[in-house]
Task: inverse folding
């Protein structure tokens, strides 16, 4: 059942991927690639673009940039994605995203 944890313990569990919230996130993305009808590269570049628009945390980039790298998406295409969304999301989001993507590539 539910454990009685402090907020710090709950955040720590979430950060480690050991929490019901993380499991829910995994289930939310199950089969979305297949249902999208997109090729893998386009799918991952669109996900990266959405992360940019949301000013996502580095951990979110790590998963998606790592997957893109694993299928051979070159860094230039990720950079091209940033260029494509820049007029829509603005400079601040692009600079933030570039830093997060650099962190993700270093961690991968």
Result:
């Amino acid at each position: 059942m539910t454990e009685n944890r402090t907020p710090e313990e709950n955040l720590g569990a979430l950060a480690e991927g050991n929490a019901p919230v993380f499991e829910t996130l995994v289930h939310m993305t199950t089969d979305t690639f297949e249902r999208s009808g997109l090729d893998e590269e386009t799918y991952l570049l669109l996900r990266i673009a959405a992360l940019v628009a949301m000013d996502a945390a580095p951990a979110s980039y790590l998963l998606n940039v790592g997957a893109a790298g694993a299928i051979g998406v070159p860094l230039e295409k990720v950079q091209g994605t940033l260029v494509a969304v820049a007029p829509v999301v603005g400079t601040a989001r692009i600079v933030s995203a570039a830093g997060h993507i650099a962190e993700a590539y270093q961690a991968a």
User: Anything to note?
Assistant: Helices lie at 7-15, 20-29, 32-36, 40-54, 58-70, 75-89, 91-107. The CA atoms of residues 34 and 40 lie 9 Å apart. The chain has two domains: 1-30, 38-107.
